[in-house]
Structures are given as C-alpha cells and as structure tokens.
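To whoever is on call:

I kicked off a structure prediction for a single chain this morning and the downstream step that reads the tokens threw a length-mismatch warning. I double-checked the sequence; it's 242 residues and nothing unusual in it as far as I can see. Pasting both halves so you can look.
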Amino acid sequence: MKKYLSLFLFASVLFACSTNGDKVSKDFMEVYYKEGISKEQAEKTLDYFYPRWKNKDGETPRKSVQLSKNGDTINFKMVSNMEVMDKMEDDIFYTTGNELSENLFSAAPVNVVLADKYFKTIRTYTFKKSDKPAFGKRLTAGNIEVYVKDSFSEEEGASMASFLSREIHPAGIISFQIGKNENGTVVVSMVANRAKADALPDSQFQSMAKQISEEQLGGVPLIFHLTNDTFSPFKTFTYKMD
C-alpha cells in the first residue's frame, strides 16, 4: 500500500560498502541484507517499495534500506532525511513496523530504524504489536491493493482487488481499504491526489461507490472516502440503493 510507508518518500541517499551486506537493487532503490535475511526477503522488500517510492514525475532520489535480524526480530533500517522524519509523529513509525511485519515478514517483529548515509543508527522505533492492524490485511491484483479489516475476509478482499483492477486498469499502484464504521456501515476508502480529485466531477466518485456496492457488496449502503496516504478522508460520498 502506499499507506504510512509512502510518507518515507524523502528517506534517501547513498552509501554502500561491503560491510553493509549483500545487495539487491533496481534503478534508484537498493536493499542491503545481512546474515539471517535471505535474498528472497530482500527482493520482496525491493518489489514492495519500488513502486511506492518511485516518483511519477521526474527522477527519484536514491533510496537505501538495510535489513538485518536479531533473534526473531527484523531490523528495517533506512537512510533518512531527519528534517522530514523529525516532523512525523512516533505512531507513524510504530504503525509502519506492524505493516512491514504483516505484509513482508510473516508476522515477525520489525523494528524501524532511521539511519545516516553510512547506515549509522540515529533513532530506533522498537516493535510494538498493535491490538488491531491499522490498515488491515493487504490483498493485491495488478496495480490495485486492498486492505481488509473488521469482518471482511481475505477472499472478499481478493475479489474486490480483482474487480477494481479490471475496472480501473491503473498505470501505478492505487490503494483501497474496506471495513466498517462504529454503526456497522461499510466504508470503502481510496487513496487519491487531492488536487487531481478536486478537478474531477463528484459524479465520477459517486458512480464508483454505486458500482462497488452493487457489483461487489450486494447493494448495501456504502460510505466512500477519498483519502490521503494514511487513509485520512478529505472527501466523502454516500450510496444507498434506491
């Protein structure tokens, strides 16, 4: 997903020497991995982050990550621009550890470590298991990712992802979340660029809400949010079958 992870777009630049471990890389991104981390895990990390950190317009600055293991715990260390990171709430980093644990490392604890360009530790956010995943279980189809939570199953999430992939055919990753609010109403959230969304007619998103409800959810009442990368809404639509 994009989710909190995309907030690390500025975590950047450089340095590599043999003491950093073996490396897999693609274009602007490099993932070093040390003893206890397999090449397959490093490649999975690369594949997960590459489309999220790639600038759609212009060149992307280098992104450097190092994976290591201490007992059962994964250390996810990234070269970081601290002027950016210092403005973020600590909860973002703890939530990121849970997201990485769930989506990349088979529920193993993941510490998020901010580092300088030599991979020298600046700050560590030690893993704290969330009572409930912040975004839910991630399911994908093509360039669509759907996070399911509350009473929704993985099968329903996979079906939703396949449906949205067929309907939208996005060139880049688009993130959705499906769950329920405190009243039991289904809530579907879609990460969107606010400026671009504001330039489109509301009827386009109202139609999307209607289509999702009628073709995937049996016509149930639906709240449809447009959100930022942390699934915080900036525009809301509702749908009820006539």
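Update from on-call: the warning came from a stale cache, not from the record. Cleared it. Sanity check on the structure: The domain at 137-239 is CATH 3.30.300 (GMP Synthetase; Chain A, domain 3).
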